[in-house]
Amino acid sequence: MANRNGIKALIVDDDPDILELLQYNLVKEGYEVRTAENGKRAIEMARAFQPQLILLDIMMPVMDGVEACRQLREIPAIKNCNIVFLTSRLEEFSEVAAFEAGADDFINKPIKPRALMSRLQALFRRNKGPQEDMEPLNTGRLIIDRSSYSVQLDGNTLNLPKKEFELLLFLAQNPNKVFTRDELLNNIWGSDVYVLSRTVDVHIRKIREKIGEGFISTTKGVGYKFEIKD
Question: Which helix (H) or strand (E) holds 42?
């Protein structure tokens, strides 16, 4: 299959009709596409295929989408991959679980191909970001490498999942400034993606578990800031 736009996509769904529909539309837009019928198979294929985009259903046999997303986010070779959930489940807890597992977006079924393609284009535009000034950001004990999406703490390399890395980087680029949860959601997830504010709290907690408590502080009733002390 032609790969005109340079993007490799993995579609994961147990419904063969949805797989066929999405594959047809993605290939038409120039994506190189692979498909999988459950989460376990998706993890196997992702390791070999190394996609930049994964479209992932939630309710599947063998391994559901949320658990698959958690495991996919632990694969270093695809840590920058965009993971988009496609689901017919409308409960709030499903959406919260998806973003807590590392999703970049959450789209409800039934799928409208034209709207989906527009959403994916916006996602890649948002994540492309400026290419200048890619030198590592050195905050003292922490070195944040924007080119490799890696963090060094006291000389030890940490591999943070994509959204955790982007959140840490954004705060570190704006030291000693308090950001509300809504501001962080808008800057990291984008204004066109609806994400619950709880998602920010979960990501901050996970970052603190990896880098320690001394970097990101909480301003009660307001939000979070990255502290650089004199």
Answer: helix 39-49
Within a domain: residue 77? yes
Q: Report whether pLDDT(15) > 90.
A: yes
- Please report the pLDDT score of residue 76 as a whole number: 85
- CATH at residue 181: 1.10.10.10
Q: Confidence band (pLDDT; 50, 70, 90) for 204?
A: very high
103 and 43 in one domain? yes
**Following CA atoms 146, 150, 152, 156 in sequence, which dihedral angle do they give, to the nearest 10 degrees?**
-160
* Residue 144 sits in the same domain as residue 59: no
pLDDT digits (tens, 9 = 90+) for 35-86: 999 999 999 999 999 999 999 998 899 999 999 999 998 898 888 899 999 8
Look-up of token digits 């492309």:
128
- In the chain, the number of structural domains is 2
CA distance 165 to 149: 7
Domain that holds residue 214: 137-226
3-state helix, strand, coil in the chain (%, to 5): 40, 20, 40
The amino acid at 225: K
In a domain, 116, yes or no: yes
Question: What's this model's pTM, rounded to 2 decimal places?
Answer: 0.74
Angle between helices 162-173 and 181-188 (to 10 degrees): 120
137: enclosing H helix or E strand: strand 137-138
Q: Are residues 149 and 204 in the same domain?
A: yes
